[in-house]
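Troubleshooting log. The previous structure file for this entry was overwritten by mistake, so regenerating from the original sequence record. Sequence copied from the archived sheet and checked twice against the printout by T.R.
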Amino acid sequence: MGQASVVRVVLLSAVMVLSWGGLLRQAGGDWPAGAALAGDDDRDDDRDDRDDDRDDDRDDDRDDDRDDDREDREDRGDDRRDDAEDREDDRRDAEEDRRDEAEDAAEEREEAAEERREEAEEAAEDRRDEAADAAEDRRREERRRERRERARDDDAAGGGAVPDRPGPGGAPEGSREVVGEIVALDLAASDLAALVAQGWEVIGERTIPELGTQTRRLKPPAGVAEEAARAAVRALPSGGDADFNHFYRAEEDVVAVTGPVPAPVPVPVPVLPCEGLHCAAFAQIGWPVAPQRAQACGSPIAIGMIDTGLNAEHATFAGARIEVTRLSDATLDASRAVHGTATAAILVGDPASRSPGLVPWARLVAVDAFHRVGQDERADVVALIEGLGFLAGQGVGVINLSLAGPPNTVLEEAIARLVTEERIVIVAAAGNGGPRAEPAYPAAYDGVIAVTAIDGGDVVYRRAQQGDYVDLAAPGVEVWTAASVSGARLKTGTSFAVPYVTAAAVLVRQGDPRLSPAGVEARLASLARDLGDPGRDPVFGAGGLMAVGLCATEALPAPGGATVAAGTAEPGGAGVAVAGAVPTGSALSETAMGPARSERGGPAEAAIAAGRADPGVAPVTKGDESVVPAGGETVGAPRATVAPGAEPVAPAETAIVPAGD
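Regenerated output below.
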């Protein structure tokens, strides 16, 4: 209890004592005097109470003030402690920031050092690659020089080159090889002398300086079987590549057009116009270049071709850069200028003619290595190798081989040298022997791009050979190209699919001349449309050829004055042709190409001119007139008539591309 409270208790006790004393006196004597005295006491008590209250209030206020002061002091202490903690936190944060900055700077220095190391390693690797390439070039040149010197030494030792004696022309029609002949590549003089001592006869020698090699045609002694003769030469130290003198033939199945060229069915005007019967095949592969004689898509690349003869005076070759060389034996009947003319026209045909080519600006070096026996047109392996060497010497970057035959080790070695040493892209026909036939060569050799044929509906040609060696599929069923003398006609066969891939390879090489043959093939395979079973398969290889993106072109004019960039199509429009305008990716859609299909596996019957038709237009039908193609099969020639309700439009020279809806 506080001091003030004790005082109040004592005072109240005193007042009560006095009050009771007064009352006692009042009861004993004078009442009024006692009453007055009591009143004074009450007033004194009230005054005392007020004083006590004031004292109590002052005491309470002092206590409260002291408590408040103490609390303020405690708060100030807390504030000082908080400030100190904040300053410590700031110091630690600043120190941590400095550490982070130092670590970041160290990491940046390390990354910069790593980048410099990587750049140095890449530069060193580039230098090593350049040195290796230079060394390989020197080795290749040294091997060529050694082969040339060896060939000269052999010529000197043998008293000069042995003139060829006619051999290939004596084999009957349809022969697989020249009977009684073995072909050897780079046979050493000592090995040749050993054979001659055993009764062998050298019936022909050819030095091919472009390949640094020499071929010899050898006749074994009488009574030696062919297999035994080949084995005997192969057993020699330098005779491992020896083989028979095989024949190779063009892979064609003719579909002739008789009578007038059918007028195209009226269809909506395409976004990118294309006039002519070639347009369907151009659109099917998304060809990105409008036919033109002017150079397109990078540095020019010369094309080589070994085929039958060709008619260089054909109107489709007006203005073309064509060089034709005949290497077949002049004593043999020359081949006809049919297959070669058709193949060359797909490549370099005049854009203004009825058979425009895919790369009409390109220089084409054509070798006629074929001869004819009856109806059989063929090239023996010696002529074929000589042609390959000639093309290598002409500096071609891509070689078109629309031909096929059996495997041959001499040819295999020559092909390997062209691909690995000369870095020439070789494109060859998969063959027309049928789906169950053995692989066709040279298409089945490593490094060669093997091409099969498909129709306008992406159906494989029924006679096309199949196998794991097939790399790509391209239009080759009823494709429109030049006839032998004048005009144009439909052609079928894996032969005519080859130039489409050859032209695409030209665009790849023009874009990057340093790309290897394997790199060119990989680029084309990566762009192909998957056909048949998912992924690569023995029927279509990597899929249907697509050339979209291989050549950057300017925007082309569309009807009505608008412009459409190559590689695009008007949504819901009439489709595309020349400029490779494919709506989505590399896959042809129904919108762009139309859903029509041919019952025969050729272009859609509704538009034989271009292989596509509008679903709302009555179809064009074929007649039943027949021709006999080279393969001996009778097929219906497409004599066209216009169905009721569909009126003919312009002639073929001014026709537009029939396209899908």
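The chain has eleven helices and 24 strands. Archived copy saved in two places this time.
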